[in-house]
Specification:
By secondary structure, this protein is α/β, with parallel strands linked by helices. The protein contains 19 helices and 33 strands. Helices cover 30% and strands 23% of the residues. Helix 1 packs across helix 2. Bound molecules: adenosine-5'-diphosphate and zinc ion (ZN). The site of adenosine-5'-diphosphate has 15 residues, from helix 7.
Length: 732
Amino acid sequence: MLSVAANPPARHLSGSRVAVLLPLPLAGVYDYRVGEQTLADGDLVAVPLGRREVWGVVWGPGSGGCAEGKLRPVIRRLDARPLPDGVRRFVDWVAGYTLAAPGAVLKMAVSVPAAFAPPRPQAACRLAAPPPALKLTPARRRVLEVAATLPPLAAADLAREAGVGAAVVKGLIAAGALDEIALPPPPLFDPPDSARPGPTLSPEQARAAAALATAVGGGFSVAVLDGVTGSGKTEVYFEAVAAALQAGRQVLVLLPEIALSSQWLGRFAARFGAAPAEWHSELGDARRRDTWRAVAEGQARVVVGARSALFLPFPDLGLIVVDEEHDGAFKQEEGVAYHARDMAVVRARLGGFPIVLASATPSLETLANVQAGRYTRLELPDRHAGASMPAIAIVDLRRTPPPRGRFLSPPLVRAVEDTLAAGEQAMLFLNRRGYAPLTLCRGCGFRLQCPHCTAWLVEHRAHGRLVCHHCGYFSPLPERCPNCEAEASFTACGPGVERIAEEAARLFPAARLAVMASDTVSGPQAAAELIRRVDDHDIDLLVGTQIVAKGYHFPLLTLVGVVDADLGLEGGDLRAGERTHQLLSQVAGRAGRAERPGRVLLQTWQPEHPVMAALVTGDRDTFIAREAECRRVAAMPPYGRLAALVVSGPEAPAVDGFCRRLARSAPVAAGVEVLGPAPAPMALLRGRHRRRFLVKAPRTAPLQTLLRAWLEIEAPPAGVRVQVDVDPYSFF
Ligand code: ADP
Ligand code: ZN
């Protein structure tokens, strides 16, 4: 068993200088003087900052940045576990790569300072030794008998077990017959049992599982588990999880939408006999604190989480699995802009352990790494237990359009009817929330727009309001048009899922119908409940956005209808084709996962589009090879590098002025191109005017160094902000 022996952290003696990283969006570390108590790298400390006391992490020896006379002492060491070396190196690496301030990255790693305080111990009673001479009533005798046979219990529990009142126990404590002791709180998570047998694997699955188990015994490696939807990728990587647990290591599984993953959690519990620790934005404060601590103490052995789980303080992480590695949800755009899949690979490399990237449609980035020999591909070409892949067919909207004002074409309507008549389930997919994406005045054509963003307001009939999907602004539908004053003149343009559900309810009145979108299903519990109803066949027809595409396994679901297959192809996004192919493959993959064969109908205006052709023929590799070739010719990612700079502020002239100055000092280097400034497609977002630069560089260019030097030339004026996004995924 190869495990990376951690060097003991460097120690800093009383009186010496240490660098302390504070969880603030500052430039870097600050020097302090070590007090009486020796400190070590990773220690959590309280230090003065101006007139405040803040916490920080000892990051290394002092840098000498502060004059000797001005150096202030560390106030004290906090009674908390030091931040592991692997996490500290990861914070530095992420900051260096994304150009974020290290303090901002540290803040993600130590997101719950409340977890520093040790958990409150629980008081319990046990027999005093030696027992005092005491007159014993029958009640007192019963208590002492119970206390002699059971492990220490809280006073109330002891009274209950003995069937006596609380006063009897209190009396025994007062008389010295029972001692009160402090017990550590019970562990939060039961240990997963890695010895439980998994399902019998098919020969292909067994081969992939064996390769992963071997990788778990070695150092850093990246395996790409590339298997069609329903091929058993989850069962296969569970074997790697079991191997890592057996080796005594912690495991992290990243899922794109953990709040929607009730089925996954159920499968994990069935396989390992215990629930994993969950980490996502819906956790309550107390749970978040306790989970952070359980990870830091090594008590949580398996964590399943959203991208932020990558920054948890695992002392002994030995395996990461990134499921649906192609999913856009792994990219964080706000604050520190990072891609959790890419940073997970870095975390594994720094920690010297393996990582598994699983997907039915791996990203071009990942496939390029396979081709370059950096990642190993493990293939699962077939569905489990002989289930066939769904038959995918096109509905050409030019030939068989829906009736005026409707969105479901005659072939799709017939297919739904047939499916329901056969007692099976159907799903209609449209990746757009709300009732209609655009509302306009019939009289003058006026369009209702968000006052704070370059965006139309989206009607949500279920909530009786118009909503901006970018800033959350909402208002009721105005009674008269603000432009021509016509009354009740507004009309909905185009469909959202609510409108499709309305049409479906009219067409299939007997079907039990449910809508699943992020605004109609609030929180993990509601999602789990809806999933259960689909599982139990309480629902015949599910209408939803991309959240219905996520990994679900519904044996009776045999028809998937994609209402607008062209939707994601709009706009000039570099990855539009790739992303549409991934999303539609994933939705299509919900159909026919068990004995009953499935089929998929794609409504499209462009049946000859390469994405549609690839879906119909199932020839993913040819499609990907073409996409890759286009990117290679254009020197676009993954064959070239991009970084976006968004300059924003409340006043357009200040933003434009600063952009002009930035443009004059743009980096000049071989092969590096700086495009812009140009108004961002969302030229106004949350009331801020936005301009964009795009930096295009060869893979070998020192992109971060160039950007850092550029941004250091001049600080933006008050109110103006520059956001850097290395490897941008959205171009809004
Ligand atoms: P994927 O993640 O590739 O879409 P899953 O792991 O969800 O596939 O597997 C699809 C279904 O088949 C699940 O219900 C899973 O439990 C089942 N399955 C896969 N492999 C096996 C196996 N070897 N034995 C029993 N059931 C399996
Ligand atoms: Zn808005």
